[in-house]
Specification:
Layout lengths: L1 H13 L9 H9 L6 H12 L2 E10 L2 E9 L5 E7 L5 E6 L4
Antiparallel strand pairs: 1-2, 2-3, 3-4
């Protein structure tokens, strides 16, 4: 699990450029302000609820706040995506990943 958390953290950090509004500094700031839950808290919950194995995480700003996009391998072996409200930790949607 520790390796998975490290991998997901690195993926989160590498998915955004330093000029992006979705960069790791913004994620850290959002967590410090209580606008987003830490990835280390949400990752196990997403894997438990989806019964999948997370392979990539993105942190993004949307109109209403922040969200995490978790890409994971589902039990059937297909690549899936779970969108999670970063502030509440609520899973907003789970669907097949269309970017694969």
């Amino acid at each position: 699990m520790k390796t998975l958390l490290t991998t997901a953290t690195l993926l989160l950090a590498s998915t955004a450029s330093s000029d992006s509004p979705d960069d790791p500094d913004r994620a850290r700031q959002a967590m410090e302000l209580g606008l987003a839950k830490p990835l280390v808290e949400l990752l196990p919950m997403v894997e438990r609820e989806t019964k999948g194995h997370v392979v990539e995480v993105e942190f993004e700003f949307i109109e209403d706040g922040y969200m995490y996009e978790f890409e994971f391998i589902g039990q059937d072996g297909h690549l899936m995506e779970a969108v999670v409200d970063a502030k509440t930790g609520r899973i907003l949607s789970v669907e097949a990943d269309e970017d694969d």
